Automatic annotation (TrEMBL), chain A:
This is (2Fe-2S)-binding protein. SUPFAM superfamilies: 2Fe-2S ferredoxin-like. Keywords: Oxidoreductase. The lineage of its organism: Bacteria, Pseudomonadati, Pseudomonadota, Alphaproteobacteria, Rhodobacterales. It comes from Rhodobacter flavimaris. Gene3D superfamilies: 2Fe-2S iron-sulphur cluster binding domain, sarcosine oxidase, alpha subunit, N-terminal domain (3.10.20.440).
From TrEMBL, chain B:
PANTHER family: ANAEROBIC GLYCEROL-3-PHOSPHATE DEHYDROGENASE SUBUNIT B. SUPFAM superfamilies: FAD/NAD(P)-binding domain. It comes from Rhodobacter flavimaris. Coiled coil: none annotated. Keywords: Oxidoreductase. It comes from the Bacteria. Gene3D superfamilies: BFD-like [2Fe-2S]-binding domain, FAD/NAD(P)-binding domain, NAD(P)-binding Rossmann-like Domain. This is NAD(P)/FAD-dependent oxidoreductase. Pfam families: Pyr_redox_2. Residues 5-257 form the FAD/NAD(P)-binding domain.
Amino acid sequence: MSGGTIFWGSRAVPFLTGESVASALGRAGVRSFGLGPTGTARAVFCGIGQCQNCLVSIEGRSAEACLTICRDGLHVLPEAEGLSDV
Amino acid sequence: MFNPEILIVGAGLAGVAAATELARAGHPVLIVDRAARAGGAIHRQPLPGQAGVATAAARWNRLIAEAEALPIRWAFETRFNGVDHQGTALLTGAENRMLRPKALILTTGAREAVRPRPGWTLPGVTTAGAAQIQLKTMGAAPQGRVVLAGSGPLLIALGAQMTRLKNPPVAIVEAGRPFAHPLTSLRLPLGYLREAAGYMATLLAARVPILTGTRLAAIRAEGETLVSTLTDGNTSREIVADMVCLHDGIRRNDIGLTDCPALSVLRLGDCAEALGARAALEAGRAGGRAMAQALATGTTPTAPNSPLLDRERAAQARLARIYAHDDFAALHSLPSDTVICRCEGRTLDDLRALGPAPRTRELRLLGRFGMGPCQGRFCGEWVARAISDTPQAPVPAHPLGEPRWPAAPIAVADLHAAAPDTGAAPPHPHGVHE
Ligand code: FES
């Protein structure tokens, strides 16, 4: 089975080809995705891009973890931390 | 001469069916979807190498084989952001551009309704649909102790699918009393009964507790576990789990999708009327033909209708009676700090502070309800019910006002990248194939 590794902060998280960031994080036991810029807790809710509750920072840009497909080496951070980085 | 495309948004049953009919009639078709593959929610495909768990896979396989033999252009991981008053559509993501389609077909499917409860914003609380999508893509049940709660046939279906994948839910909590209406149930179409009987046999054999007439009133976190309070009106009890999946019904997903005077726009499938998979396939095909006909004659396409759609409409109405409950009345007795708007953390208190009968304008500008990035998809219905004297009564489709453009928040960088359509190749062809 092919796949790769993404990074949740400094933690390496394996993924399967075609898997969403939310799914890879969830299977690695990460279900709380930290905080958004206004302090709301981020986590998967609707799973299909409608609620925006799973927003995280992916390579410095805010994106839905449930819609974004993993690519090898992708850097993912809680939204609040990722945005202050840019 | 440049022949503009017909843009179809959503590669589920309705979208792909409409695309095949239009392509067969000789129209160039571009079908976009935010997912990485076609399938939509019902026929969400497993990751490469994972076992599929889908029901009615033959229906999808037939349709997609037919579509792939036709000259349809697919753009996955691509988001449709709406269409302006001149008929210019903005796509972002893998295919990032503006285009002037010849016509627009929206097949964006359904969304779930989830009634607010204390604790529904905790990590580990998701919609039942989110868990089902995960199950279909991974070919595996969610791990740990899972409670399914709310109301509707999806709870039974998901419970049975999890059981077959060796992790039955610890309980199914159903606000209605679906087993108390055997006569109404028997008048459902045979396909519905067969499917339900299969699910029930699986659940009974695995001794999954199905608590009917029971509401999941509140959830609290204790360390990593989630403790849910269940009540049947007389007694209450607690149940411990790692994950809670909520579902209070299906609604059509058309929020944020405005009409456009400069363009023929047709909504097909669940986003027009939530009638399920059989109807979506039928409406997609009939709607595709209706659009082809309208373009040929320069007329406005009309929404499809057929005996099958009537039958599905009647079946859905019957299901609603079978699952009838008074759970929404609980909105009036929620603790005042219960979050109603998940996006901005606005509570029932914030809503009540707007006075006895706030107008839409006050709700939005003072209350900030429906102003967050979900555009009121998850709070609109509950705001309307909570301020109503009759929270059980039907609420309007867009209780917090008409949808606006764009359909979802867009990053400024994407806007810059989306050059006006010149007929040239899109700037980011990744994920697009012809
Ligand atoms: S979980 Fe709702 S948008 Fe991702």
